[in-house]
Amino acid sequence: MNLIRTPGSNNTQEPSGGFKNNIIPLTFVLKYEPPQIGMIYKVNKNDKKRRLYKIYLHSLITKNDPIVITNQLFMEHSFYLEGAEECREQVKPFVEIFIP
To answer: How far apart, in whole angstroms, are the C-alpha atoms of residue 77 and residue 50?
Structure first.
């Protein structure tokens, strides 16, 4: 498959128009007020800089089901969490902390 480099971006564009990101999740962090989960990541394996992506949970914590919330997070934030499927088990306990 041929990938097209998007100018000014660390992502590659597939000929079909979709994007394949190079994001590598390192760890997840938690903030209580406002409720949010942060993902610390690198753009690629050679990147020395660590970045933080914040996911706000205000509208989700009323659902009271950590599995549903976790699945929704991975769906809504798929660009950043796409390569982090194995991290679902790390995110779920963070979500459970916020459920009343």
So the answer is: 18
Eight-class DSSP state of 65:
-
Cβ atoms 57, 36 nearer than 8 A = yes
Closest C-alpha among 93, 82, 87, 92 to residue 26: 87
Question: 88 or 9: which carries more pLDDT confidence?
Answer: 88
Alpha carbon distance 60, 86 (integer Å): 21
Better pLDDT: 28 or 18: 28
Residue whose entry in the numeric block shows the structure tokens 């903030």? 31
Q: What is the pTM of this model?
A: 0.70
Q: Where are the domains of the chain?
A: 22-98
Please list, residue by residue across 73-100, b when 16 or more beta carbons sit within 10 angstroms of its beta carbon and e when fewer do: bbeebeebbebbeebeeebeebbeebee
Q: How far apart are CA 86 and CA 89, in angstroms?
A: 7
